[in-house]
Amino acid sequence: MATYTITLTEAEDKAIRYLVDDPQDWIQNAAGSQAQRGVDAIYAVEVERMTADPNIVSIPANKEQVVLDAEVLSVVERNEQAEFPDPPQE
After folding, report:
1. Measured at the alpha carbon of residue 6, what is the angle toward residues 13 and 81, in degrees to the nearest 5?
2. pTM of this prediction?
């Protein structure tokens, strides 16, 4: 499990408290929602990849396990590859 810590200025803290009754809960829900979008995206790509691969005979029934087993790049790694693509092979 990962733990993230954020820091807000006094003005940002005042502003978020103006908008939501429990900033900690709201931030936790926002992060969890974004993470779930990532889980769903990784799962969809992996199931499609595994379904298309004739060498794979079974797909884990547990969505979390599919995500944990997936060999995926982070957004930073994907962006770096886009900036510096591999040279064309001849």
Report:
1. 130
2. 0.79
